[in-house]
Amino acid sequence: MTKGMSVKQSYSLLKSFQLNELNFARLQYSVTHFVISTLQNYYTDRLFTPSKNFLEEYDDEILGLPNITPNGLFLPKKSTRNAFNDVHRAAASMFNSTGLAKHFSSAHMPISIRLITNKRAGDLDARPRSSTKLHTDIWAGESAATMMLFLPLMGDAANNSISFYEMDSFPVELLRSLTDFKYGGELARKSCQLDVDFNIGELYLADSFILHKTEKKSPKIRLSLEFRLVPKQVLASDGYGSKARESDYVCLDKWFEIGEDLFVYNELPLRDYSYSDKVIDKYAGSAKLIDLRLLDS
Question: Cα(119)–Cα(220) distance, rounded to whole angstroms?
């Protein structure tokens, strides 16, 4: 899959690539605009302006936003959906420029914008499926056939990073959805931690069998982009895991139309995110696709 590409960091289940500066700058701009738009729509009596230091300048206000899940996922809402679709369009352009797209058949919708800081810790990190626990996404309801792209965008990625671990073989009995990531601690003793630098502007392609966990060592915010993909090549191990999230995936041709002819749509207002301790194998928010061409006919 990565043959002929300029790989920066290479392991059996993880590869990284340096992005084109122009595509990466466009993506940074669109995510900055999304966060500023969210701030403006929530704190309506304030004026927020984008800058190189906006994460530090508005950190308390950002952490007070109501559409951030316990694992740091920014959820698109009605008042921010235009800005969110701009992010997707920039992400699609970035991904297309890598040359990787020809290897995949479908992708998750919507993409994920994630915020990490140790200011949001404590009880949140004690939850059964906290991303700070070593885990594989198979345990969160993903199919073993999927792969994940991680892209640190801005902020403190050095201290608020992701640690990756590889195993010689994965216990078959754990290749399923789990209600608690507690098994990650047991597998850590049987795995090897990879010496991975988590760098801004570097794209990380990870197999579903890789173990990973979020590190929170700094109060400074790290923003990153993530989305999952299904490869065209089918392996014997792809049958493991759950099919609960299959409906969250769209064919790649359709995925590339989002932000152009297709629109990620959400009618929910920008209000406090509510959650229970009940574990579900679905996307944390609510989003659907609308074909703009049908609206014009």
Answer: 8
DSSP output for 218-248: -SS-EEEEEEEEEESS--GGGG-B--TTGGG
Which residues are paired to 15 by β-bridges? 10, 205
Which residue, among 231, 240, 294, 224, has the nearest Cα to 262 in the 3D structure? 294
Distance CA 209, CA 5 (A): 22
The list of the chain residues with pLDDT below 50 reads: none
Who contacts 158 (Cβ-Cβ below 8 Å, separation ≥6)?
Answer: 198
Which domains, ranges and CATH numbers included, belong to the chain?
7-296 (2.60.120)
Residues 6+ apart with CB under 8 A from 95: 101, 149
242: nearest Cα among 139, 108, 161, 141: 141
Q: What confidence tens digit (pLDDT) does each residue in 91-116 have?
A: 999 999 999 999 999 999 999 999 99
pLDDT in tens, 161-212: 999 999 999 999 999 999 999 988 889 889 999 999 999 999 999 999 999 9
pTM: 0.93
| CB-count exposure of residue 250 (10 Å: 0-12, 13-18, 19+) | middle
- Euclidean distance between CA atoms 62 and 39, whole angstroms: 7
DSSP class of residue 135?
B
For the record, the structure tokens of 61 come out as 């206000």
Phi and psi of 289, rounded to 5°?
-100, 135
Q: Count Cβ neighbours within 10 Å for each residue of 8-32 and write b for 16 or more, e otherwise.
A: ebebebbbbbebeeebbebbbebbb
